[in-house]
Write a structure and sequence with these properties.
Layout lengths: L4 E6 L3 H11 L5 E7 L15 E3 L2 H6 L4 E4 L6 H11 L3 E4 L6 H14 L3 E4 L6 H13 L5 E9 L8 H4 L1 H12 L5 E6 L10 E7 L5 E7 L1 E12 L3 E6 L6 E5 L17 E2 L8 H13 L10 H17 L6
Parallel strand pairs: 1-2, 1-4, 2-3, 4-5, 5-6, 7-10
Antiparallel strand pairs: 7-11, 8-9, 9-10, 11-12, 12-13, 13-14
Length: 325
């Protein structure tokens, strides 16, 4: 049996604590050996006994660990990723890759040149229900007409990262992954605005060269938490929604003839394959560990992450028309 991969974690905020719990659930595959944080008290009760805690993130990258997870605010990602590349350390970087398109393009070039394994954690790409929908779409081979993606909750409210960059990267990554190309045109609407002038909810429309369209509604001012994806083809609707039953489903729907009945009809979804109870975070971590061990690395790299940043950057001026870019 291969030795457990030694993991260093930088950042112990809300999502960093999720990583600690997820790593603790994979004791045969990996172990958390180093944590970079100024709040060591947050480790209590998370199952990280034995991990060395240091206040300086640079000490984690230079430590005797095999890989690094970066779970810090996105404005810090570029510097930390570049340090990982300099040290030759495989790493997971939380989404978004960064908040600036020029920086994303520079990082993308550096990652490609370095050949260091890098995985940007667009977690929803690893959702079991999304995987089932994507497999079904591949089997049927129909062109996608519309992708409808929703991701929202009541908070967490943050002053440092706008909702566009905090919530929408998940939905944009799903749309780009499904269409397999970057959008040719974008539109964005947002509101209400927080004290810093950034909208707490956003609606995005992505038009793709192949003719399909992505509609995204995301943000942190919804009284109910929601994460749902619907994909319309010529003859079907596919759904990925872990709060629904079935979580991954398909229903007949004649897209071109949708107005002929003249009335609304209930949609009854049939399940797509067996339900999986494996959380997306666990699947992502296992994929990363498999890739380090010589397995599939299709989702490694920063190509998709850079296109996500490009798409969000194109939406930004429409949400802040008074700002010059």
């Amino acid at each position: 049996m291969a030795a457990a991969v030694r993991i260093g974690l930088i950042g112990l905020g809300r999502w960093g604590q999720v990583y600690v719990r997820a790593l603790a659930a994979l004791p045969s595959r990996c172990r958390l050996t180093h944590v970079g944080t100024r709040h060591p008290e947050r480790l209590k009760g998370l199952g990280a006994a034995g991990a060395t805690v240091v206040p300086d993130w640079a000490d984690v990258i230079q430590a005797e660990c095999d890989a690094v997870i970066v779970a810090t605010p996105p404005q810090t990602h570029a510097a930390l990723l570049e340090a990982c590349l300099e040290a030759g350390k495989p790493c997971i970087i939380e989404k978004p890759l960064c908040l600036d398109l020029a920086a994303a393009e520079r990082l993308h070039r550096r990652v490609a040149a370095s050949r260091v394994p890098v995985l940007v954690d667009h977690t929803q790409l690893f959702s079991p229900s999304y995987g089932a929908v994507k497999e079904a779409l591949a089997r049927e081979g129909e062109p996608i007409r519309v992708v409808w993606s929703e991701g929202m909750a009541l908070g967490p409210f943050r002053d440092d990262v706008p909702a566009l960059w905090d919530w929408a990267p998940h939905d944009v990554s799903l749309c780009l992954d499904l269409f397999g190309q970057a959008p040719s045109q974008v539109a964005a609407l947002g509101g209400p605005r927080n004290a810093g002038g950034a909208p707490e909810m956003v609606s995005l429309r992505l038009e793709f060269p192949a003719g399909g369209c992505g509609w995204i509604h995301a943000g942190r001012l919804s009284p109910a938490r929601r994460r749902a994806l619907s994909v319309f083809t010529d003859t079907r609707i596919y759904r990925a929604d872990d709060s629904a039953d079935p979580a991954a489903g398909v229903a007949p729907f004649a897209f071109a003839a949708r107005s002929e009945t003249g009335r609304a009809e209930p949609v009854e979804f049939s399940p797509l394959g067996p339900a999986s109870s494996s959380p997306a975070m666990d699947r992502m971590l296992n994929y990363f560990l498999d890739g380090l061990a010589g397995g599939d690395r299709t989702k490694f790299g920063t190509g998709l992450a850079t296109e996500v940043v490009r798409t969000l950057s194109a939406c930004e001026p429409m949400l802040h028309p008074s700002r010059k870019r």
